[in-house]
């Protein structure tokens, strides 16, 4: 066994003590800005591609509106949700995750589901996926995860060995891997899939009372998926299949729509619920926290110019409005920084001045200069704060609500490390036919993995989720079952 492994270091050569957990103030965060290694990883990662997005490079978008259909004011003071019948303009961008800008639409991959609400309190971005969970639960692992999904630096080919090596060494990914390898891993179109905020967020009402919330967009078109052979055929014949389908549907007046539901959890339940509610690799049972209808989103207008609107669109989960706040979700905490930072690099520091990103209300701040500043740059007005010249000032009523934190500043994981129960529940929930397709998809994907130890390690995860799950994958690969990880 090799013992003289090279030490992982920062770019300035200092050894890294923990590459799995970001530093938080106590068990539940928030993440500390003093974790400079986390910031370095995320900032460097955002600058690894020029000029397309590092992830979600291939996508399509459309304009529409969101209409409130149910009174949720007892949960949130967000103005765009303040009354039934209220409509807010939206722009949504759908995307694949791992492929380049010229990649095929019909590959097995999660789909991005990013919604920009142009509200009267500024823009609110809900940046999610077509799955309610994710592969990892700490942002410090995100650059490594995406590297494993991207092209090998030597061969410039996709590398199944890297993909499954990372997953097998990150058992928290098992739930999402099961979804990805199921029928839902290849949606038939962008219109025929659900969307999710994925993370836990905080809603606050006019009295300052908060609740934890999860978002679910349910497609009115119904769920439809593609078989792998059909998806591969389409990828060769029409790699822009999903992009074309969305454009044509809207152009002919067949406007796609989704109903938005939320799950609401009282703040105090976070301390006693059987799953950590801030762990994005887990779902909340809808029996425990039923879906509550909020509204309906309709897409009814195509972009006039793809580059100006879809390509230059910038989304960040950190762009919130009063009544909506973050949670201690470690993955979300990292994204609050990373997404805006990516936009500053990819589009520029003044990306929010572009028409597709600019709010429908006047923005008043003291930000000046920067590349591509194309408005009046504040003119001759006061350019600092506080000041004695009637410049814009803070509104204390919109201050983010407080919550208590405790513990020591350290790199810590979540309390709960059961990565198998929910994945096993999902396996048992789907039909026998879909189980067979799930196993076949996994086997086909893992066949070309170079190291047997990686296959055996992953089989053990499947087995711990459900013995039959592991046995069937092992049999398909011609390998014995490894019951321990």
From TrEMBL:
GO MF, one example: heme binding
Binding positions (heme): 339
One of the record's GO cellular component terms: cytoplasm
E.C. number(s) listed in UniProt: 1.11.1.6
Gene3D superfamilies: Catalase core domain (2.40.180.10)
Domain Catalase core: residue ranges: 9-393
Enzyme class, spelled out: oxidoreductase
InterPro entries: Catalase, Catalase_3, Catalase_AS, Catalase_clade1/3, Catalase_core, Catalase_immune_responsive, Catalase_sf
Cofactors named for this entry: heme
Chain positions covered by the region annotation Disordered: 1-26
Active site residues per record: 56, 129
CDD domains per the UniProt record, alphabetical: catalase_clade_3
Similarity-based family: Belongs to the catalase family.
Protein name: Vegetative catalase
Source organism: Bacillus methanolicus (strain MGA3 / ATCC 53907)
């Amino acid at each position: 066994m090799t013992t003289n492994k090279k030490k992982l270091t920062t770019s300035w050569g200092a050894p890294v003590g923990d590459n799995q957990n970001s530093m938080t103030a106590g068990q539940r965060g928030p993440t500390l800005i003093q974790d400079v290694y986390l910031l370095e990883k995320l900032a460097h990662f955002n600058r690894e591609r020029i000029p397309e997005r590092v992830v979600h490079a291939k996508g399509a978008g459309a304009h529409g509106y969101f209409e409130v259909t149910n009174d949720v004011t007892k949960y949130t003071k967000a103005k765009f949700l303040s009354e039934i019948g209220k409509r807010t303009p939206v722009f949504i961008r759908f995307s694949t995750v791992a492929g380049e800008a010229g990649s095929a639409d019909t590959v097995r991959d999660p789909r991005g589901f990013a919604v920009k609400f142009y509200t009267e309190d500024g823009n609110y971005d809900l940046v999610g996926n077509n799955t309610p969970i994710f592969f990892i639960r700490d942002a410090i692992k995100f650059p490594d995860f995406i590297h494993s999904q991207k092209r090998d630096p030597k061969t410039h080919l996709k590398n199944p060995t890297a993909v499954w090596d990372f997953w097998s060494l990150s058992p928290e990914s098992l739930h999402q891997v099961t979804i990805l390898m199921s029928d839902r891993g290849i949606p038939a179109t962008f219109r025929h899939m659900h969307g999710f905020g994925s993370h836990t967020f905080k809603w606050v009402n006019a009295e300052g009372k908060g609740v934890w919330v999860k978002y679910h967009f349910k497609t009115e078109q119904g769920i439809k998926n593609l078989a792998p052979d059909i998806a591969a055929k389409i990828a060769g014949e029409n790699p822009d299949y999903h992009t074309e389908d969305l454009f044509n549907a809207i152009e002919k007046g067949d406007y796609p729509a989704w109903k938005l539901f939320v799950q609401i959890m009282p703040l105090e339940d976070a301390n006693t619920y059987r799953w950590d509610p801030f762990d994005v690799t887990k779902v909340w049972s809808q029996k425990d926290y039923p879906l509550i209808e909020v509204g309906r989103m309709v897409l009814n207008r195509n972009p006039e110019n793809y580059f100006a609107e879809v390509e230059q669109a910038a989304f960040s989960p950190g762009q919130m409005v009063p009544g909506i706040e973050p949670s201690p979700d470690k993955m979300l905490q990292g994204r609050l920084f990373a997404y805006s930072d990516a936009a500053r690099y990819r589009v520029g520091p003044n990306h929010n001045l572009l028409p597709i990103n600019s709010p429908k209300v006047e923005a008043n701040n003291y930000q000046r200069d920067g590349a591509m500043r194309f408005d009046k740059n504040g003119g001759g007005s006061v350019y600092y704060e506080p000041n004695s010249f009637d410049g814009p000032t803070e509104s204390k009523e919109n201050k983010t609500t407080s919550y208590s934190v405790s513990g020591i500043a350290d790199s810590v994981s979540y309390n709960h490390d059961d990565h198998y129960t929910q994945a096993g529940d999902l396996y048992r929930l789907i039909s026998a036919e879909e189980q067979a397709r799930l196993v076949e998809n996994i086997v086909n994907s893992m066949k070309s993995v170079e190291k047997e130890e990686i296959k055996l390690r992953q089989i053990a995860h499947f087995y711990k989720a459900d013995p039959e799950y592991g046995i069937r994958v092992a049999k398909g690969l011609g390998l014995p079952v490894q019951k321990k990880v």
